[in-house]
Specification:
The protein has a single domain, classed as Hotdog Thioesterase (Thiol Ester Dehydrase, Chain A). Helix content is 27%, strand content 38%. It has three helices and five strands. It has a five-stranded antiparallel sheet. The longest helix has 18 residues. 22% of the residues are buried. Pfam families: 4HBT_2. InterPro entries: 4-hydroxybenzoyl-CoA_TE, HotDog_dom_sf, YbgC/YbaW.
Amino acid sequence: MESVLDIIVRSTEIDMNGHVNNAKYLEYLEWGRDEWFDKAGLDFDTFLAMGMQTVMVNINMNYRKECRQGEALTIRTRPCRAGRSSFALLQEIVGAEGKIRADAVVTCVTIDAVNRVSREMPQQLRDVLERERNDTM
């Protein structure tokens, strides 16, 4: 399973070069991750009930083609790796014509909500990541 989030580029997301500012792509990806977590039934309150949170620790992003005001974009998110306390999501920003505008691998770590240190990911998250990753292979 992958989550799919459709957006329209707004005027406030455009920089002086007339295209989406590079920092906005990171925000788009964050929206996509939120959509994936919600679709997987792993929202913020669910994580807190497990005594944990997730934090992004690395992002490797490729900017492939500019995005402009008014364009329809789709943010696709799916799991690609699960470790002991970390996991990675593959994300793509795709234009209406079907071309990838940007793609990224985002690595997150599960942390204890109180102590704020890395902890082994809960089985509920691991099960979702493994099931989702296997569905896309």
